[in-house]
């Protein structure tokens, strides 16, 4: 697909989010996958600030636990935190550069151990307010062009609009409620990964893969299905388990 | 982000081990938040709640009424895990809480703000602020109330939730509860011990406390199946082999 078509597709998905009964976590996960395709990066994560101003992971292009932890490591240090605080993008940060390790002594070696060579952070902002950051990782020190950065900013802005426009929360109209609701949904999803992993005796990553495949095939919203499982209102035997890898 | 006044309330909360000074702390919190009354209700399974803090009769009556009728901003906040802010009860869309609207006309509550206490699908209770005259909370008051609800959640779950920015609440390690692996471990333990999520998190915390290891390490071991808690919440020391059932 040409890049232009891909971008158009993302905009259509966002338009859906404004009119449809819509699942934020699902949408952000798809958006982060699109970022990987469109910007030619290895991984993308969406980080949102909670009420303590601490960044939390809301979605990632790859829900691998190791990658989630790498994003989570940026809760109080890392390029995404700097980007969130300043509201300015931080692009083309070479992780082998001694300055990177000096600036973020925990984050930088962890990112290198995961095989990443460079990273970028794009602020998520609306009307002058910064609510989080998009984190992008690359395996090589390939530079993002100015056009790439502009596109990344457009995608980050779309994520922001989707978060602040979500209609699923009919009774809470404030921005803060929407941010909090988004984070709560994310934590429910992690708790459900644990529940399914234990019921099925698989890893949490395998449990999520089966869960997501089922949700997508049956047009269930990821957040809503996760909540139903956590509340014991959904029979998880209905979900076909992928065979454990061994 | 958090006001000096709320930081002081959190310090009082921390010092007060047995809730001896609960009335005093609650009254001070109401003052800081600029409201006439404040209640804290703990969820005791299902939709049942138990009043823990109550600064004045009007607030207590409103809380009782909501949970007796099973509708209102409080029950909505507990169910959804999102804040429900009602700056003017007279302006509520008809049909939203029909019974409550009818019954509450005589009560001295004109604005109500409910902050859920919980972590993901774990619902601990709700913090409710009441005003005798209609007026929205300021952003600062909303932020303070969120932080207070967070601290009360930590207390209800037997330990403090990591705080920042002047919060005197002690933490496992900064950001522990931001880590996906803690939520995943909570889900796994709830299945292993056949207990609800809040109890599962308590068992994890209890084990972390008694073994003198950080909650994050304990959680990683549980998710990697290197550690399995027994019914007393102790680790049995033996990694459980992953069974090949099915």
Walkthrough of the structure:
The complex is a heterodimer of chains A (246) and B (246). With 246 residues, chain A is an alpha+beta fold. Chain A has ten helices and five strands, in the order ααββααβααββαααα. Helices cover 53% and strands 15% of the residues of chain A. Chain A has a five-stranded antiparallel sheet with strand order 2-1-5-4-3, with helices on both faces. Chain A is globular and about 50 Å long. In chain A, 49% of the residues are buried. Chain B has nine helices and five strands; from the N terminus they run ααββααβαββαααα. The longest helix of chain B has 18 residues, at 139-156. The N and C termini of chain B lie far apart (52 Å). In chain B, 51% of the residues are buried. Chains A and B meet through α3, α8 and α10 of A and α4, β4, α6 and α7 of B.
Explain the layout of strands and helices:
The complex is a heterodimer of chains A (246) and B (246).
Chain A: H1 3-19, H2 24-39, E1 43-49, E2 55-60, H3 65-72, H4 79-86, E3 90-94, H5 98-103, H6 107-113, E4 118-126, E5 129-138, H7 146-165, H8 175-200, H9 204-217, H10 222-230
Antiparallel strand pairs in A: 1-2, 1-5, 3-4, 4-5
Helix pairs in contact in A: 1-2, 1-7, 2-7, 8-9, 8-10
Chain B: H1 4-15, H2 22-32, E1 37-43, E2 49-54, H3 57-69, H4 73-80, E3 84-86, H5 98-103, E4 111-119, E5 122-131, H6 139-156, H7 180-192, H8 197-211, H9 215-223
Antiparallel strand pairs in B: 1-2, 1-5, 3-4, 4-5
Helix pairs in contact in B: 1-2, 7-8, 7-9, 8-9
The overall strand count of chain B is: 5
The largest contact between protein chains, plus residue counts on each side, is: A-B, 43 and 51 residues
| Structural class by sheet pairing and helices of chain A | alpha+beta
Largest sheet of chain B: 5 strands, antiparallel
Question: Distance between the terminal alpha carbons of chain B, to the nearest Å?
Answer: 52 Å
Low-confidence stretches of chain A: none
Roughly what is the average pLDDT of chain A, rounded to an integer? 86
Helix content bin of chain A: 40-55%
3D shape of chain A: globular
The total count of strands of chain A amounts to: 5
Give the averaged pLDDT of chain B, no decimals: 82
| Spatial strand sequence of the major β-sheet of chain A | 2-1-5-4-3
């Amino acid at each position: 697909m040409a890049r232009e078509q891909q971008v158009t597709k993302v905009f259509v998905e966002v338009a859906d989010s404004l009119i449809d009964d819509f699942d934020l976590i699902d949408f952000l996960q798809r958006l982060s996958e699109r970022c990987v395709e469109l910007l030619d990066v290895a991984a993308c994560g969406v980080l949102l600030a909670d009420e303590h101003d601490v960044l939390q992971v809301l979605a990632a292009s790859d829900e691998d636990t190791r990658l989630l932890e790498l994003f989570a490591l940026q809760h109080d240090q890392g390029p995404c935190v700097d980007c969130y605080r300043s509201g300015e993008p931080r692009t083309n940060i070479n992780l082998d550069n001694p300055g990177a390790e000096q600036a973020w002594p925990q984050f930088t070696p962890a990112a290198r151990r995961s095989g990443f060579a460079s990273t970028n952070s794009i602020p998520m902002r609306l009307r002058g307010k910064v609510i989080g950051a998009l984190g992008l990782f690359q395996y090589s020190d390939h530079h993002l062009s100015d056009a790439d950065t502009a596109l990344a900013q457009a995608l980050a802005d779309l994520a922001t609009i989707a978060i602040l426009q979500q209609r699923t929360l009919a009774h809470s109209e404030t921005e803060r409620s929407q941010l909090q609701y988004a984070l709560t949904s994310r934590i429910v999803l992690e708790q459900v990964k644990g529940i399914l992993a234990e019921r099925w005796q698989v890893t949490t990553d395998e449990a999520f893969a089966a869960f997501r495949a089922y949700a997508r095939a049956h047009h269930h919203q990821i957040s809503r299905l996760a909540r139903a499982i956590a509340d014991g209102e959904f029979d998880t035997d209905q979900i076909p388990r992928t065979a454990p890898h061994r | 982000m958090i006001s000096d006044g709320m930081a002081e309330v959190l310090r009082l909360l921390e010092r007060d081990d047995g809730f001896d000074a609960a009335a005093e702390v609650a009254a001070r919190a109401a003052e800081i938040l600029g409201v006439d009354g404040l209640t804290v209700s703990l969820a005791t399974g299902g939709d049942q709640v138990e009043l823990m803090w109550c600064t004045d009769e009007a607030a207590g009556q409103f809380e009782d009424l909501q949970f007796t009728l099973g509708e209102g901003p409080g029950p909505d906040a507990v169910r959804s895990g999102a804040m429900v802010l009602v700056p003017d009860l007279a302006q509520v869309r008809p049909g939203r809480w029909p019974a409550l609207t009818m019954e509450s006309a005589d009560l001295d509550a004109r604005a109500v703000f409910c902050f859920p206490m919980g972590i993901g699908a774990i619902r601990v209770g709700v913090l409710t602020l009441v005003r005798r005259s209609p007026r929205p909370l300021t952003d600062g008051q909303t932020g303070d109330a969120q932080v207070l609800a967070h601290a009360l959640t930590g207390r209800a779950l037997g330990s403090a939730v990591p705080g920042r920015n002047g919060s005197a609440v002690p933490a496992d390690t900064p950001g522990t509860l931001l880590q996906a692996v803690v939520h995943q471990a909570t889900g796994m333990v709830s299945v292993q011990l056949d207990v609800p999520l809040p109890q599962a998190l308590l068992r994890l915390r209890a084990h972390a406390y008694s073994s003198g290891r950080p909650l994050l390490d304990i959680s990683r071991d549980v998710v990697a199946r290197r550690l399995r808690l027994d019914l007393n919440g102790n680790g049995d020391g033996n990694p459980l082999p992953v069974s090949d059932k099915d």
